[in-house]
Amino acid sequence: MRWLGEVWGHCRQLEVQSASLQLCCSCLRLLSTSTPAHAALDQQSQQKLLERTGLPLAQRCKNLLAGNWRGQLSTAQQEPRGKDEPAVHSSIVQYVAPRGSLPFVLLNKGTDKKHIQNLALEDRASLTVGHTDPQAVVSVLRAGGLMPARANVFAQLEQLPAGEMAYVDTMSHKHTVDIADVDGALVDQLAVSQHALLNSINQNRELRSQLALFCQAYLQAPAEDALMIQADRLGFTVLGRTPTDDGSGKPSWCEFRFQLTRELADAAALQQMLTEMRVEIDQAGQ
User: Fold this and answer.
1) Of 139, 159, 185, which residue constitutes the final position of a domain?
2) pLDDT of residue 169
3) What SUPFAM superfamilies does its record include (predicted)?
4) What is the full DSSP assignment across the chain?
5) What pLDDT is recorded for position 19?
6) Number of domains, the chain
C-alpha cells in the first residue's frame, strides 16, 4: 500500500501500508466472519461459510477493502521502552482503496507522528480492515460475542513520492489469499456504498421490522428485531434478536444469511429485492 501526506505506496506481494504509506504486499488474510472472538473455525466450518455466501475469499477481502475507509495500522515500536510497554504501536487511520485496489493510507504528521517515526526505521506494518460502522451494529455484534468480518493486510511501507500522490474524493482461523487472486477478484458495487446503505436500513424501524419478518417467514426463526450487517451481489446477512430459554432475560443475537436467486447490481436492486420479499410474504398470507 501507499501512504499519503507522509505517504507510502505500491504493491508487489500483498503486505500492508497506508494512505500516507505505500504497500508492498505478500499476503492478505480474511479473519472469520461473525464468530466468537475467542474461537477459530475448523476447515469444515470454513467450507460451510464459503458455501453459505458463495463468494470467494479473495472477493470478500476485496469487498472489505473497497467498502471501508478506516483501519487499524500497527507498526513496530523503535524507541527504548519499558517492560510493560507494547512492542507495537496501533491506531485507527484513514485510507482509500479505489475499486478494492491496495490501499493508500493517510498519515497525519501530527496525530500519526509515532507511526511515521517507526516506519522510518522499520517499514513492515499491518493494516486491519473491517466493518467499524455503523457503531450500533458493531455494538450489537460485540454484545453477542461476535466479531465483524475483517481483512488483515501485511506489508512493507514505502513513502509515496509527491509526484504520485492523488486526491480521492468521498465517492479466528486465518486464510491466506494470493495477491494475484485479489487483483483479479471482482468488487461488488454494493461494497462501495455498504456503510451508507446499512446505516439507512438499520435506522428505519419499518425496514428492521421487515428484516425480522423475513427471518420468521423464510427461515422460521422467531426474530423479534433484526439488523442488516452485510450485503453483496449474492445476498445479505441479518443479525436477528431471538428469545432465550435460559431465563436470563438477555437477548440472543443470531446471524441469518439470505441467499438470493438473482444477483444484485447495486443498492437500488437490493431495495427492490426487499420490497419484493415483503410483497411475497403478504401474498402468501392472503
Assistant:
1) 185
2) 41
3) FMN-binding split barrel
4) -EEEES-B---SSB----TTSBEEEEEEEEEPTT-BTT----HHHHHHHHHHH---HHHHHHHHHHH-SEEEEEEE--S---TTS-SEEEEEEEEE-GGG-S-EEEE-TTTTHHHHHHHHH--EEEEEEE---SHHHHHHHHHTTB---EEEEEEEEEEPPGGG---------EEEE-HHHHHH----HHHHTHHHHHHHHHT-HHHHHHHHHHHHHHH----SEEEEEEEETTEEEEEEEE--SSSS---EEEEEEEE-SS---SHHHHHHHHHHHHHHHHHHT-
5) 29
6) 2
Whether residue 208 is found in the same domain as residue 237: yes
Residues 101 and 234 in one domain: no
Q: Which three cell numbers stand for residue 279?
A: 410483497
Q: Could you tell me if 134 and 115 lie in one domain?
A: yes
Question: Which candidate, 32, 31, 250, 34, places its Cα nearest to that of 141?
Answer: 34
pLDDT band at 278 (very low <50, low <70, confident <90, very high): very high
Q: With beta carbons less than 8 A apart as the criterion, state whether 38 and 147 touch.
A: no
Full domain range(s) for residue 19: 2-185
State whether 202 and 229 are in the same domain.
yes
Please name the residues in contact with 265: beta carbons below 8 A apart, sequence gap of 6 or more: 189, 233
Phi, then psi, of 168 in degrees rounded to 5: -120, 125
Q: How many CB atoms lie within 10 A of CB 111?
A: 10
In a shared domain, residues 225 and 147: no
pLDDT in tens, 4-54: 433 333 332 232 223 223 333 333 333 333 333 333 345 565 566 566 667
If asked whether residues 234 and 267 sit together in one domain, one would say yes
What is the distance between the alpha carbons of residues 85 and 59, in angstroms, rounded to a whole number?
A: 37
Q: Which of 53-67, 203-217, 272-286 has the lowest mean pLDDT?
A: 53-67
Average pLDDT over residues 174-185: 61
99 and 47 together in one domain: yes
